[in-house]
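Feature request, filed as a ticket because there's no other form

It would be nice if the structure record came with a short human-readable summary line next to the tokens. Right now we just get the raw output. Example of a typical job, pasted below so the devs can see what we mean:
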Amino acid sequence: MDKRYLIVLGAVLVQGVTIGCVFAYGVFFSVLESEFGWSRTILSVATSIAFLNMGIFAIAAGRLSDRFGPRGVLTFTGLSTGLAYVLMYFLSAPWQLIVIYGLLVGLGLATHDVVTLSTVARWFPRRRGTMSGIVKVGTACGQMSIPIIAVALIASIGWRGAFVTLGIGATVILVLAAYLMGMRPSQPPANQAESSPQDGLTFKQAKQSRSFFILGGIQFFYFGSLITIPTHIVPHSIDSGLSTAGAATVLSTIAASSIAGRLLVGALIDRIGGKRCFNICLLLLFVSLASLLVIKNPVHLYAFGVLYGFTHGGLFTMVSPTVAEYFGMRSHGVIFGAIVFTGTIFGSMMPIVTGIIFDRWQSYDAAFVLLASMVFVSLMFSLCLASSAKAQSDLRVATQN
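Raw output as currently delivered:
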């Protein structure tokens, strides 16, 4: 068996468990509210800090992975993720939630994309987009399955026991996944290899390029939508007239549609390049967000879920192969991490900003206008990105020099 596919399996497991547990955290909101009387603002702050730390630690995680490989890095962050959920057993004060969840889960989030997708990109030079899409399907599977498991655990052994069980399970699976991702298969056949893993720009060279800042700008303005909508779409759907079950189905529709987005956009980027895929996905994301301002019949929110979910999955898939396309693989991890960080600078605060807007006006409309406007700016950045052909030409010249 080609060991490269065991690496892909490891990446799928990391994606599914890490993000599945993050989505499962939302299941505990009402329980923690009832137990301690904490506000949703406090509960949301923990998530925002975790995503902010994801960006901060992603640069270091990418650099360490570039230098030492993925196994040690993923083992460490897998243990931190599992420990976070185990320690939630002892919760009694808001500061504990913020420190435990914000720091330890943030470490796990820092590596779930940067290390896994960078490693897969190295071993599949001709199919980076396609294989990235397959890896990101693991995310959707975790989003759909682990929250359901969490609900069952809470009902059977209580919320404290549920946290511990999730933590132990996450530790075992993530450490196993780290072992798989550290495998060293033989190099891909000559007819598949486009370049050596050492071809490409250094991080210092990349930072001096126009494309680096444009990609950072793209990420900065759209990333907030990708973490805000999943957080607030359920209460918005209920406010619009759907039942709790119907609102949860909108979220499930987003997760299911994101699978198609991950696979189709992943395959498409291998054919038409990052710039065109960004243009398509950002335009569709803008349309989906704008539609929230005009939807009157709550049933139409399911159609929103299909369109938004597709772009959500596509955008999470395409950053890694686009980084490889414009900068090569020499410092892929740290460059990828730096671009991820630009998105979390402001994006991690958007769930809180959206909550504040709703509390102030009892409506999400202003938040949806803000998110759609930011995505439009991101689309303008994308239109300024160099074409894929020019990017490849510039990369070859830079590598030869």
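Something like this underneath would help us a lot:
The chain is about 85% helix and 0% strand.
The radius of gyration is 20 Å.
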